[in-house]
Specification:
Length: about 400
C-alpha cells in the first residue's frame, strides 16, 4: 500500500492497524469471475474476513454470501445482503438454525443425517420450507494444502453413507428439499490443473450422489480453494487459463445444462486487500539472537499458527519509516507475555529501529478474525477501508470483548 497513506492512517488512528484496499477486492472479484465458466455463481466465504466494507464491495460485484455463524449473518446484513445467503458448517445448533430462519435464510449446506433432521425440525417449527445441498466428502483424495474432503474429516457426509441402501429414505424429511451437492476440498489449491481436477471430481460426486438418491441436482457448489500468498509479498496467483480448463470439465459433466454451477472463495477475493501496519516497540539482543518486538502479534495475525498447530508462513516486513541499508536476521515477536507470541523466527528483514512503522502485506484473509484476539485482553485494532488514497470507513471487531463484563 501507499506509504504516505499508511503513515497518515497510523498517525490518525494509532498502531497497530489493519488497512484494506477496496479497489483490490473489486479487482480480484472481477478477475475470478472472468475465470469461471459462463453462468457460474460465486459465493464469498465470510470466514476469510467478515468486514462489511469488503463484503459490500463483493456484493456490488454480484458475489453472494456464504456464512457459518450468526456473527457472519450480521456482517452480511451490514453489507446489504438480503437474499441468496447460504448457511453451512458441521455443528449447527437449534438456536443457530432458528436465528437463520428468523432472518430469512432458506438455503443450507447439510453435513449429516442428524444435521438434516435438525434442519427439517426447525423448518417445521418455523413454518417455512427450506432447501439444502448435501455436503459430501468424496472418496477421491483432493489436490489441496489443507485437505478437508477426500480424507477422513468431520466435514460432510462420507460418500459411502449416501450411496448405501436406505439413505434416500432418511433424507425424506418434512419442509426440507434436498436440491444439490456441495464439495469443498480445501484451501490454497496450487495450480489451474489442480483446480480443474478438483472441480471434475466434485461434479462427478454430485452426479453420482444425486442419481443414487434420486433427487434433482439443481445446484452444485464445487468449492474452490483459489490460492493467494499469506503475509508475504510473493506474487499473487495467476489464474490464466482457468476458465478454459473449467469449461472443458463442466461441459463434459452430465449436470451441464440442468444444474446451477457454484464456486466459493474467501482467501483469493480479500487476501490482497489487507495490510497490517505495526510499530517497532523494542529491538534487543539475547545472546546471539536479535529480537524485534512489535505492537502486534499472534492476537492479530497468524491464525491457528499462533498456537503452533500449522506451520508459520514466511513473513514479509516492509519498513515504511526509513530505508536502512543491509539486512538483519531476527526473531519477530509481539507484545504478549507468552513465548508463543512469535510471528517469525530467524527472519531476514531490513534493519529496524524503535518507532519504525512496518507493513505486512496480503493479510486481508484469515488475518485479524482468524487470530487469538482475546488472548491477553489487548485492545482490538481498528480496521480501516480505503479506496485510492482516501480512507472510506473504519470498523472495530467486537465479537469478543477485551475484558469480561458481568451479564
Ligand atoms: C466450506 C468452505 N468453503 C469455503 C472456504 C474458503 O476457503 P478459501 O478462503 O481458501 O477460499 C472454506 C475455508 O475453510 C470452507 O471450509
Amino acid at each position: 500500500m501507499n506509504a504516505d497513506l499508511a503513515r497518515q492512517l497510523i498517525e490518525k488512528h494509532g498502531s497497530p492497524l489493519f488497512a484494506y484496499d477496496l479497489d483490490a477486492v473489486k479487482a480480484r472479484a472481477v478477475t475470478l469471475k472472468r475465470e469461471l465458466p459462463e453462468g457460474s455463481r460465486l459465493y464469498y466465504s465470510f470466514k476469510a474476513n467478515p468486514l462489511p466494507a469488503i463484503a459490500r464491495e463483493l456484493r456490488e460485484q454480484g458475489v453472494r454470501a456464504e456464512i457459518t455463524s450468526d456473527g457472519e449473518l450480521r456482517a452480511a446484513q451490514n453489507a446489504g445482503f438480503t437474499d441468496g445467503i447460504v448457511f453451512g458448517g458441521p455443528g449447527k445448533s437449534e438456536k443457530m438454525i432458528a436465528r437463520m430462519l428468523e432472518n430469512g435464510v432458506r438455503h443450507f449446506s447439510c453435513e449429516s443425517f442428524t444435521d438434516a433432521a435438525r434442519l427439517s425440525q426447525m423448518a417445521v417449527k418455523a413454518g417455512v420450507n427450506i432447501t439444502a445441498m448435501l455436503r459430501v466428502n468424496p472418496q477421491q483424495a483432493p489436490d489441496a494444502r489443507l485437505a478437508m474432503s477426500g480424507v477422513e474429516s468431520q466435514f460432510g457426509f462420507d460418500e459411502a453413507l449416501l450411496l448405501a441402501e436406505g439413505a434416500a429414505e432418511r433424507l425424506k424429511l418434512p419442509n426440507l428439499t434436498i436440491n444439490g451437492v456441495h464439495v469443498y476440498f480445501g484451501t490454497q489449491v496450487a495450480s489451474v490443473e489442480a483446480l480443474a481436477r478438483n472441480t471434475q471430481c466434485a461434479l462427478d460426486t454430485a452426479s453420482r450422489v444425486s442419481t443414487a438418491l434420486g433427487f434433482e441436482c439443481e445446484v452444485a457448489n464445487v468449492g474452490g480453494g483459489f490460492p493467494w500468498p499469506y503475509a508475504s509479498d510473493a506474487a499473487g496467483s495467476d489464474l490464466t487459463g482457468l476458465r478454459d480448463a473449467l469449461e472443458v470439465v463442466w461441459k463434459a459433466s452430465p449436470l451441464h445444462g440442468k444444474t446451477q454451477l457454484c464456486f466459493e472463495s474467501g482467501r483469493y477475493l480479500c487476501a490482497s486487500s489487507g495490510t497490517l501496519l505495526t510499530t517497532v516497540l523494542d529491538v534487543k539482543k539475547a545472546g546471539s539472537k536479535t529480537f524485534v518486538v512489535l505492537d502486534t502479534g499472534i492476537h492479530h495475525l497468524g491464525g491457528m499458527s499462533g498456537l503452533g498447530r500449522i506451520p508459520r508462513a514466511a513473513l514479509t516486513l516492509i519498513n515504511l519509516t526509513a530505508r536502512r541499508d543491509g539486512e538483519i536476521v531476527a526473531d519477530v515477536v509481539g507484545p504478549l507475555c507468552s513465548p508463543l507470541d512469535s510471528l517469525a523466527r530467524g527472519q531476514k528483514m531490513p534493519p529496524v529501529e524503535v518507532g519504525d512503522v512496518l507493513a505486512v502485506p496480503n493479510v486481508g484473509a484469515y488475518g485479524l478474525t482468524a487470530s487469538l484476539l482475546g488472548f491477553l485482553s489487548h485492545e482490538t485494532p481498528w480496521e480501516v477501508a480505503y479506496r485510492g488514497s482516501q480512507e472510506t470507513e473504519k470498523w472495530v471487531f467486537q465479537c469478543w470483548h477485551n475484558s469480561q463484563r458481568a451479564v
